[in-house]
Amino acid sequence: MGLEVVYFFGALVLLTALIYGTLSYRYRNKAATRAGDEIVRERYRQNQG
After folding, report:
1. What is the CA radius of gyration of the chain?
2. Residue 15 belongs to what H/E stretch?
3. What distance in Å separates the CA atoms of residue 30 and residue 8, rounded to the nearest whole number?
4. How much is the pLDDT for 28?
5. HSE (CB half, 13 Å, CA atoms) of 38?
6. CA-to-CA distance for 9 and 47, rounded, in angstroms?
């Protein structure tokens, strides 16, 4: 009986993490992502020149 509870909670934690990861990827802040990409591009240009 005790081992089934451990497996259930483990599966619940994994399912919760999967749902959270999927939703956070889908609804990420696109403006922040764009700003981060621009910073990376600018640093790359500075290192090349």
Report:
1. 20
2. helix 2-26
3. 35
4. 78
5. 6
6. 49
Q: What is the pLDDT of residue 29?
A: 80
Work out whether the CA dihedral 10, 15, 18, 24 comes out positive or negative: negative
pLDDT digits (tens, 9 = 90+) for 1-49: 789 999 999 999 999 999 999 998 888 788 888 888 999 999 999 988 7
The C-alpha atoms of residue 12 and residue 1 are separated, in whole angstroms, by: 17
Tally of CA atoms within 13 A in the half-sphere of 18 that contains its CB: 6
User: Token pair of 16, please?
Assistant: 């919760």
